[in-house]
Amino acid sequence: MPRKSPVVFPQEQRLLSELGERLRLARKRRKLSNAVVGQRAGVSRTTVYKVEAGDPGATLGAYVRVLAVLGLEGDLNLLAADDRIGRKLQDLALEPSPDTRRRKVNPPPARNREGSA
To answer: Which of these, 25, 6, 109, 70, lies nearest to 117 by C-alpha position?
Structure first.
């Protein structure tokens, strides 16, 4: 039974296609064929075609192997390296809210054993 293709939104598909095109250009600059890249990466020539086409069905591992063959695997360290949104959310959670700054917490009155204050 064939696997279902993942749902990919147009913007994400555009990103994958652009990545594939950059990988194709990098391969051509190195004067390597799809067959050679596939052999060195340990994937089929068809998988290299899929990676260069930005096929969302190609595994992340296939993309990584092709990057490694082209000497570009270090670029993976740049992915999500600067999580500006996450840091901002974290900073907001660390700041006390305006309500807690204004409110003074008073301890409850001490009660004796009979229950009267």
So the answer is: 109
Per the CB < 8 A criterion, the answer to whether 87 and 94 are in contact is: no
Tokens of 77: 């360290």
Q: How many Å apart are CA 29 and CA 45, to the nearest integer? A: 18
Percent helix, strand and coil across the chain, each to the nearest 5: 60, 0, 40
Report the Cα–Cα distance between both ends of the chain, in Å, rounded. 75
Tell me the CATH class for 1-100.
mainly alpha
pLDDT tens readout for residues 75-117 = 998 888 888 898 888 888 887 766 665 665 666 666 666 655 5
In the numeric block, the tokens 């939104």 are attached to 9
Q: Hey, what amino acid is at 1?
A: M
Which residue in this structure is represented by tokens 């807690």?
100
Residue extents of the structural domains in the chain: 1-100
27, 52 Cβ separation under 8 angstroms: yes
